[in-house]
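Quick check before the chapter quiz. The format below is the same one you will see on the exam, so make sure you can read both the input and the output lines.
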Amino acid sequence: MIDLDGLSNNWIGTDKGLSVITNSGVYNFTEENGFESGKVNSLKSLSDNWVHIGTAGGGVKRLKYNGIDAITSASEIITTWSGLASDSVLTIYVTDDTLRWYGTTEGVSTHFGSEDTKDINYWGRYNNITSGIIDNYVRAIIRDNYGNMWFGTRGGLSKLSPDKSSWQSFTEQDGLISNNIFDLEVDSNNNLWIATDKGVSYLTNLSVSVHQKGPIDYQIKLTNYPNPYNPETKIDYTIPKSGKVKLEVFNIQGSLIKVLVDKTQNAGNYQVLFSGDNIPSGIYLYRLTTERSSITKKMVLIR
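Here is the expected output.
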């Protein structure tokens, strides 16, 4: 892969390391000269000309050419002292609000702003336990013109709504030529192009199914009241189509606490009572999953 920084330097990542072509010469970084985990999976130049390099096992390296004759390095981003989900980073995407998205072999991590990457409060994480993403092995990330975030994985395609409250996924059953996705691109007409191991699929204007199979309306709704609660809360949800439904509760670390619903249900409105009698105070996640969508919300138990 190749990326160009703001000073017109070419950064080239390979399976053996990194090369930087500048006006003063070529700089090479490999395992032999201290560039740990030499294989480069992804590159992304930021607006301040720092280049983030996603590696296969070494986390994210951060380098910058000084414009004259040297490469400067900053502390690496690794799981030991950051919110990075895995040290194998497959893709890096930066939105215009400086939010950085790292697709890894264990899900997606986000970091906001320029604050210290060692402060866990500036990190977020999405995986198939704590969110509706279809698979944790994330090779491609992009945002469309409506603000939706799209994630290409080896298990299919997932979309996160602009308010980050709901998920929708697409697989071969919806018309994808393959679930094994390597790259995503949004064109000027807001069509999403999906590169897979078997060819290319696309979503037209991101409002219809793959290959224009027809409109999709799989909007599901989820809320609870009271929130915060003690000791019980009512979880209300709406499903627009009949099918398999699962409602689960997790702690903030992603460990499953209880399965409240796991069965086929008709379209309609439902309510489930959840009791916090046997769990400690804190933040909990509750996730509703149907055959086409998923929503994860937070609730707080206060003793």
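If your answer matched, good. The two ends are 52 Å apart (CA to CA).
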